[in-house]
């Protein structure tokens, strides 16, 4: 019988014995890693998942760049959404591969031969673990060109790649380890896959909650404790809202602690107790090593829970005193006729008509759809800067502000500015002033290749299909050569 027809675990046993007999210093985990990588990539499982991801990210990127409802969304938002897709799909692949790693060997009746190899169970688990996390680097490598095109030269590209790689490594390491834990302790592949997917969905579900649920007390707690939600919130604030890492560093504790807990469970407790029939050992509470591990997990869980910031809403009494200083706001444009994808630039001028210095001032842009049956407009999608602040204006002094408007939906709209004098105390309100409106008429314009994304959306799946064809040819050629050797 040719070696290529042997079960994969027996191949590992033979390779380990050969390495031991020849005095080779190659560790067994490296042999297991090589076999798992060949099974995962040459076997085609990982390539199929990567192909699905290529098609998905290509469609999403094209829609982000061309759909009339999302066209000209700010570059940082498009980059964030693409990176969010890469993390979601990459972690799903990681947890599926991890959940199949050992329970799949049980069902294929190859785990017994693997456990009989002259090596420790930790090395077996380590080799499988390193192979199971290999799809994430490939996923991120595929994502980077899409991020570059969607960024369009924006400075968000660098931070997106840096934090995407860092957070992806952290989360893929954690979720792969969790999938392998369920695989070690489950007697069937169906059970390990079911548990892993349920846990993944429970972690991913809060991201889909409405905005009000995400900003409440429980929403803020989930953002801090749930590793997926915490990373998602961290990336959104850093990439989209231009917050600093120092402001958002509390949201890094959850993925770090989660990764530490599952990796400790996998390699310190579960891996040395890997059994042929699966299941959790009943004497886990009585070993000193297990007690130390339980203490570390308890401390980690305590830090995890205590990192949630629960802020109580502030209330105050109502007062009727209103501040109305003599101010004036004018605008240099009254109307604009453009197509979707065009930009409208205009200026406002704020004048202090009082004989004394004004209080600090705030200007906010608003956009109204003039069609009663049209969609409600979110001004944040139309302008990269919809709020500007002025320290104060001297008596009779004026100040100009520049504004940019990205037209993303066809229709008729009214754009206007609101000038708000900052109240000087909690007991005082103020009287906002409005500028004249700009009537903006937007006609639909569709590009066949928006932002040059089409070659990437089509080329990515084509390259993966070519790789799959090459792998199939390589495997077929190996089988044919094996038949020729048998005939000889």
Question: What would your notes on this structure say?
Answer:
The protein is α+β, with helices and mostly antiparallel strands and 488 residues long. The protein has 2 domains: 3-306, no CATH class; 323-443, Immunoglobulin-like. The protein has 18 helices and 11 strands. It has helices at residues 8-21, 28-42, 45-66, 75-100, 103-107, 111-115, 121-132, 135-151, 157-185, 189-204, 211-215, 217-225, 227-239, 245-248, 253-270, 288-306, 379-382, 454-487, and strands at residues 322-323, 327-331, 335-339, 343-352, 361-369, 387-390, 398-406, 411-421, 429-430, 433-434, 438-443. The strands form 3 sheets. Strands 3, 5, 6, 8, 10 and 11 form a 6-stranded mixed β-sheet that branches. Strands 2-4-7 form a 3-stranded antiparallel β-sheet, with no helix packed on it. A two-stranded parallel sheet has the order 1-9. Helix 15 runs antiparallel to helix 16.
């Amino acid at each position: 019988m040719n070696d290529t027809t042997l079960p994969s675990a027996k191949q590992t046993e033979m390779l380990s014995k050969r390495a031991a007999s020849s005095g080779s210093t190659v560790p067994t985990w490296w042999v297991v890693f090589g076999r798992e990588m060949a099974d995962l990539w040459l076997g085609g499982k990982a390539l199929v998942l990567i192909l699905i991801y290529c098609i998905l990210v290509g469609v999403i990127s094209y829609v982000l760049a061309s759909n009339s409802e999302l066209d000209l969304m700010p570059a940082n938002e498009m980059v964030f959404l693409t990176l969010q897709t890469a993390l979601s799909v990459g972690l799903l692949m990681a947890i599926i591969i991890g959940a199949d790693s050992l329970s799949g060997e049980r069902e294929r009746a190859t785990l017994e031969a693997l456990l009989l190899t002259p090596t420790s169970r930790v090395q077996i688990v380590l080799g499988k673990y390193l192979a199971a996390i290999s799809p994430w680097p490939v996923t991120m490598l595929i994502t980077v060109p899409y991020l570059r095109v969607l960024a369009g030269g924006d400075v968000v590209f660098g931070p997106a790649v840096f934090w995407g790689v860092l957070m992806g490594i952290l989360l893929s390491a954690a979720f792969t380890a969790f999938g392998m834990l369920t695989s070690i302790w489950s007697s069937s592949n169906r059970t390990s896959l079911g548990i892993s997917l349920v846990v993944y969905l429970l972690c991913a579900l809060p991201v889909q909650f409405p905005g009000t649920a995400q900003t409440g007390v429980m929403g803020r707690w989930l953002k801090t404790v749930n590793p997926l939600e915490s990373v998602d919130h961290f990336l959104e604030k850093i990439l989209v809202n231009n917050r600093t890492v120092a402001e958002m560093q509390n949201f890094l504790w959850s993925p770090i602690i989660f990764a530490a807990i599952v990796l400790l469970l996998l390699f310190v407790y579960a891996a040395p107790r890997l059994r042929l029939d699966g299941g959790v050992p009943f004497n886990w509470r009585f070993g000193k090593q297990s007690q130390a591990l339980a203490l570390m997990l308890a401390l980690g869980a305590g830090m995890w829970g205590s990192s949630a910031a629960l802020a109580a809403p502030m209330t105050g009494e109502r007062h009727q005193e209103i501040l109305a200083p003599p101010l004036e706001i004018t605008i240099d444009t009254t109307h604009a006729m453009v197509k979707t994808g065009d930009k409208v630039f205009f200026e406002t001028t704020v004048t202090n008509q009082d004989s004394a210095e004004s209080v600090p001032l705030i200007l906010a842009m608003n956009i109204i759809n003039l069609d009663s049956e049209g969609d409600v407009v979110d001004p944040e999608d139309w302008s990269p800067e919809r709020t500007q602040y002025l320290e104060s204006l001297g008596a009779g002094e004026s100040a100009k502000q520049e504004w940019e408007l990205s037209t993303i939906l066809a229709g008729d709209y009214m754009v206007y500015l609101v000038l708000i004098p900052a109240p000087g105390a909690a007991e005082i309100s103020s009287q906002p002033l409005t500028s004249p409106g700009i009537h903006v008429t937007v006609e639909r314009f569709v590009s066949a290749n928006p932002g040059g994304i089409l070659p990437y959306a089509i080329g990515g799946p084509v390259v993966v299909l070519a790789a799959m064809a090459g792998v199939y040819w390589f495997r077929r050629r190996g089988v044919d050569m094996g038949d020729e050797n048998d005939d000889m």
